[in-house]
Design a protein that fits this description.
single chain, mainly alpha, 2 domains, 11 helices, cell membrane, membrane, phosphotransferase activity, for other substituted phosphate groups, transmembrane helix, transmembrane
């Protein structure tokens, strides 16, 4: 009798685990469906804005309108993250010279991987960065399956290795997002540690309703411009 009870208990545990896996798969499938529909709607409704920004970047800088940068995605796989180019064409050289000659800028870059006063950014580039319009090409990354509309902020491998520590595994469990908790909670006004904590909390607790709430809050964050530079 005791053995039968133990077998029944094991069967119940196995069934519960299987149900959890199915439920998790269902949530991920639903999230992917929302991503595909959302990206297709974006390209259908806002293609005119996309083309206008593309043309303006070309006309004002003479260089390519978009650029690719390697980011870490789900399961630790790297991908080419797309953005409208907001910087001068020789941005790498400008950054290198700045960090070599400006200790304060070097410390800021080492701490946050961002510069509050970045000489690489063009005038139009400052506008599209402040309004997050520079990230619109990432809807193509969403269609490709590299990214999600909502998720952790995409990072480079060096950031993941340097700052995420035990949270790196959580980051790699999901596709990074165009928007997420960081974008609606202060953006660049937050510390890097706070950003990592927000990403880890999102991975543990995300829901589809929560994603819709973050998308709605993103609109307000974009118009307020708080923490964007």
């Amino acid at each position: 009798m005791r053995r039968s009870e133990e077998e029944t208990q094991h069967q119940m545990i196995a069934a519960k685990d299987a149900w959890g896996e199915q439920e998790g798969w269902g949530k991920r499938a639903a999230k992917r469906g929302v991503d595909i529909v959302g990206a297709l709607l974006f390209f259908t409704l806002f293609s005119g804005i996309f083309i206008l920004i593309w043309w303006t970047v070309l006309a004002t800088t003479g260089g390519p309108a978009t650029y690719k940068h390697r980011r870490v995605g789900r399961d630790g796989r790297e991908f080419d993250c797309l953005k409208f180019r907001s910087m001068v064409t020789n941005s790498a050289e400008v950054l290198r010279d700045l960090l070599e000659n400006d200790p304060q800028a070097r410390e800021e870059w080492t701490t946050t991987f961002k510069l509050r006063r970045d000489p690489r950014i063009t005038r139009f580039g400052a506008f599209i960065r402040k309004t997050s319009l520079d990230e619109l090409p990432q809807f193509w990354n969403v269609l490709r399956g590299d990214m999600s509309i909502v998720g952790p902020r995409p990072v480079v491998q060096l950031e993941l290795d340097t700052y995420y520590g035990p949270y790196a595994q959580a980051y790699c469990k999901m596709r990074p997002g165009i928007t997420g908790p960081w974008q609606v909670n202060g953006r660049s006004n937050t510390t890097y540690a706070e950003r990592v904590a927000m990403d880890a909390s999102y991975v543990r607790n995300w829901t589809l309703l929560g994603d819709l709430s973050l998308i709605a809050r993103t609109v307000g964050a974009v118009f307020s411009g708080r923490g964007s530079y």
